[in-house]
Design a protein that fits this description.
Length: 229
């Protein structure tokens, strides 16, 4: 069965080239140019991966990414953009993106990133239908399928990457988890840029966990992190 790619791009020439290149490699591709049409088609097409341009007519790619992530927490999403500012990249990750590819790009690089995400997320559609996971972290309850942390009657919604990072730490409680393993699992590689992103996300999770002083994310110098409570 062919891998189904939902490709959203409003530049006709680029869209045609990328679509044909992917189809020549046996992907099934649906190209949409108008952001307002994406979600209706998403529900109908049921893609395996989404490749979204950011600047689109009527609706931007970041808002589409957030909607897709709400529908399926495990859908691989790649953003394409000409923007190069760090804050734009971070916004992409906050909007549910798993990867971020700057224009101009080669189709070979796009395919490599797609295949990496498909390997990481393979079989997760079944996971979404399995009994709900739940972790007790001190006074917190963590529901990764919902992307939520609960303490008493208060609920905090997590971004996709915050959720991935906390899940990795919860799956190995009181054990060291290396920075390299985290970055490869959450971002797909351990580049310097992703290392900076990891620092930002660790700081956020520590802030979220502050209400319970027994819960800590310890930094293990030269190694990584350990979640304890």
């Amino acid at each position: 069965m062919k891998t189904k790619v939902l490709y959203v791009e409003d530049e006709p020439f680029l869209g045609k080239i990328v679509k044909e290149s992917l189809e020549s490699r046996q992907y099934e591709v649906r190209l949409i140019a108008d952001g307002a049409e994406v979600m209706d088609f998403y529900d109908f097409f049921k893609p395996d991966i989404c490749v979204l341009d950011v600047m689109l007519p009527n609706r931007d790619g970041f808002s589409l990414g957030r909607d897709i992530r709400r529908r399926n927490p495990h859908m691989p999403i790649i953003f394409l953009t000409a923007k190069t500012q760090t804050e734009d990249v971070i916004q992409g990750f906050e909007s549910g993106g798993n990867d971020y590819l700057r224009k101009p790009f080669s189709v070979e690089e796009l395919i490599a990133r797609m295949e990496n995400l498909l390997r990481l997320f393979g079989g997760n559609s079944a996971m979404a239908q399995s009994p709900e996971q739940q972790f007790s972290i001190g006074n917190f309850r963590f529901f990764p399928n919902r992307q939520e942390m609960w303490i008493q009657d208060q609920v905090r919604k997590l971004s996709h990457r915050e959720n991935q990072l906390l899940l990795l730490l919860c799956e190995r409680p009181h054990q060291p988890v290396s920075r390299k393993d985290i970055m490869e699992a959450v971002w797909g590689n351990d580049s310097f840029f992703n290392s900076r992103n990891l620092d930002v996300y660790i700081t956020r999770l520590r802030e979220y966990l502050r209400p319970d002083e027994q819960v800590q994310i310890l930094t293990l110098k030269g190694v990584g992190y350990r979640l304890i409570w």
